[in-house]
Amino acid sequence: MPVLTRPDGEIHYETHGEGFPVLLFAPGGLRSRMEMWSSPEGGPARPWVDWTRALPAAGFTAVAMDQRNAGASRTGIETDHGWHTYAADHMALMDHLGFRKFHVLGGCIGGSFCLKAVQTAPDQVVAAVLQNPIGLHPEHPEYFLESHAEWSREQRDARPELSEEALAGFGRNMWDADFAFCVDRAFARNCPVPTFLLPGTDIPHPAATSTELAALLPGVEVLTDWRGPAHLAQQEARVVAFLKRHTPPA
Q1: How far is CA 13 from CA 43, 55, 84, 89, 93, in A?
Q2: What is the pLDDT of residue 250?
Q3: Which of these, 12, 154, 161, 203, is most buried using a 10 Å CB contact count?
Q4: Which residues of 7-30 are buried (b: 16+ CB within 10 A; e: fewer)?
């Protein structure tokens, strides 16, 4: 598996296909890793398209990755790390691959990675697909703080040298906000790139956040019924058509 060397560790990634690049951010929260796109062998089918296969078949280069400290990727964790740290990894990977301009597509936490990528590099990100985006649930505001505490215990068990202070500071930087955590509503209202939304409906992916995104993002396209086998073909067709429509001429 190819590796991107970062100042504080390594990021594992894969590329599939040829064509205009789409940087993929897999579901899984802080455990976001490439394997989450495909259905587990012998397990239940994913309710989403495996974009590592569908996009190459449609003429795109799919760039998949294990996020820092997920899957095979290992990096440091510092008190001042946060959404900007992930965005720096993402831009470094696309620079490493020689892709000046690209689309982004993210599931779960990947929706926030997409928005942060647009905010970080609006001259490089051409269009964004937000699949099941996370956000602060109005009735369960503790969800991500508790999830972060569980994730931090896993990290400390595997790497006792990690600082509890650093893990806590990182958590505050990630989750001490509302809406989509990584950007505010003003940014969403003025988002400079075209967007496509596959709304969320549960606690980590609140309907309230997706409803706000649908109202705020300029000209956003929304596919409400997208989950599960009955909707996979339409999900794939609509997202691919959106990305093709916004791909710059060769």
Answers
A1: 24, 16, 19, 11, 9
A2: 82
A3: 12
A4: eebebbbebbbeebbbbbbbbbbb
Give the other-Cβ count within 10 Å of 85's Cβ.
19
CB atoms within 10 A of CB 62: 24
Whether the predicted model's global pTM rises above the 0.90 cut: yes
Question: Who's near 66: CB < 8 A, 6+ residues apart?
Answer: 11, 12, 13, 32, 33, 34, 72, 73
Instruction: Tell me the C-alpha distance between 105 and 113, whole Å.
Output: 9
Alpha carbon 34 to its chain centroid, in Å, reads 11
Q: CA nearest 132: which of 94, 168, 102, 105?
A: 105
Position 44 confidence tier, pLDDT thresholds 50, 70, 90:
confident
193, 247 Cβ separation under 8 angstroms: no
The backbone torsions φ and ψ at residue 71, rounded to the nearest 5 degrees and listed phi first, read: 55, -130
- The domain locations on the chain are 3-245
Phi, psi for 213 (deg, rounded to 5): -60, -40
Q: Are strands 74-75 and 3-6 parallel, antiparallel or unpaired?
A: unpaired
Decide the pairing of beta strands 9-16 and 3-6: antiparallel
Quote the Cα angle for 203-206-208, to 5°: 140
**What would the pLDDT profile of 201-239 be if each residue is shown by its tens digit?**
999 999 999 999 999 999 999 999 999 999 999 999 999
Superfamily of chain region 3-245: Alpha/Beta hydrolase fold, catalytic domain (3.40.50.1820)
Please name the helix (run of DSSP H) or strand (run of DSSP E) that holds residue 51, with its range, or none: helix 51-57
- How many angstroms separate the Cα of 103 from the Cα of each of 18, 34, 139, 230, 248? 14, 17, 33, 26, 10
